[in-house]
Design goal:
Number of helices: 6
Number of domains: 3
Distance between the termini: 134 Å
Structural class: mainly alpha
Helix content: over 70%
Radius of gyration: 47 Å
Strand content: under 5%
Order of helices and strands: HHHHHH
């Protein structure tokens, strides 16, 4: 199921976030919701206000950590983006979108916790637990996608970037070598044709004279094949048409 696209207003922080801080923050963003869920499940049996207070404090900390994970993720993603493949860029966009939803969802979890503490109603507590479970599931999915970005696509792995740069250089060298080879082959073909033309010329005859002889022979063949038969046919026709009819001698009566 694809999440609808969401864009948050751009916030300029008064300080710079170091690169590769995102993985360290993510450990807390994943661990804290799990601890909170375990505390809440325990408190269903123990019903201790102290456990509820600790859970509330951890939820506040989770909201802060989620915001930190979001901003550190923006920095790391921007750093790694140019070196990623198209598939990796698409996976990074999906990871960022889910991270945005989870950051907002942490505030929703805090809201339901406050409502559950203020009202004390069972239905609100039940809704709070459902929201918390869904939040933990989303956190696990986000962690899985983050692992794929690193282990499958090599995001922010320095050695992968070095190898990618070396591969790019090798491709350029291969293209240059291929172009030079193609040019050399064309030159060799041209030289071979010229040598064949010179070697085919009889000794003492220039290429121009050979061309003239070839043209003369072609004209002779054309005349013999087309002109001569046409002339013969015309002459024969004239002979037939100009021949006088046989005159019949009149017979003179002698009696």
């Amino acid at each position: 199921m694809e999440l609808p696209a969401i864009t948050l207003p751009k916030v300029e922080l008064p300080f710079d976030i170091p690169v590769l801080l995102h993985p360290a923050v993510d450990h807390f963003a994943i661990a804290l919701p799990v601890v909170i869920l375990l505390l809440e499940l325990m408190n269903l049996i123990l019903r201790k206000k102290a456990i509820g207070g600790v859970s509330f404090f951890l939820i506040l900390l989770t909201v802060v950590v989620s915001v930190g994970a979001y901003f550190t993720g923006l920095v790391d993603g921007k750093e790694a983006y140019p070196a990623l493949t198209e598939a990796a860029k698409e996976a990074l966009s999906e990871h960022k979108l889910l991270g945005t939803y989870l950051m907002l969802a942490s505030g929703v979890v805090l809201l339901f916790k406050l409502l559950a503490m203020i009202t004390g109603k069972g239905i609100i507590k039940g809704l709070y637990l459902l929201v918390l479970i869904a939040f933990v599931a989303g956190i696990f999915e986000q962690g899985k996608e983050g692992g794929e970005l690193v282990y499958k696509y090599g995001m922010n792995v320095e050695q992968v970037k070095v190898l990618d740069d070396e591969l790019f250089d090798l491709k350029e060298e291969l293209e240059e070598a291929t172009e030079k080879t193609e040019v050399s082959i064309e030159v060799e073909k041209t030289e071979t044709v010229e040598v064949d033309a010179v070697s085919a010329t009889p000794e003492g005859t220039t290429p121009v004279e050979m061309i003239q002889e070839t043209v003369t022979e072609s004209v002779k063949m054309k005349v013999e094949e087309e002109v001569v038969p046409a002339v013969k046919e015309t002459v024969e026709t004239l002979k037939v048409e100009g021949m006088p009819e046989e005159m019949v001698q009149p017979q003179i009566a002698t009696h």
